[in-house]
Every structure is written in C-alpha cells, then in structure tokens.
Amino acid sequence: MAAGPWFFCLKHHTVEPRDGCAERHRLGPYETRQEAERALQTVAERNEQLDEQDRKWEGD
Which of 4, 23, 36, 58 gets the most CB atoms within 10 Å of its CB? Predict the structure, then answer.
C-alpha cells in the first residue's frame, strides 16, 4: 500500500496521492487513504458540531 499523504479531490470525488489535482480542488492532507475516503463525512460532522456551538453561543 502506498504511503500518504492522501487527499480527497472535490472535482473528481476520488482519493488521490500527493501528485493529484490542484490544491484548490482538494481536502487534506490525511494520513491514511481511509481518512481521505471519509473526508466529506468528516467535514459534515465538524460543520454540525460548529453549528451547535454557534447555536449555544447565540443562546438558541
């Protein structure tokens, strides 16, 4: 198995090694291919956590 870092390409919706698409089209780097495969799920989970923190901060 190839070593990382790994990136998730937002343009092609694929996991790529370092020599992939331009940085502006990617999320990462991730240490493992599996982490990169979960990139969109991780972003959604973090956004939900931050939205909850915002709601608490605003007193909702």
Answer: 36
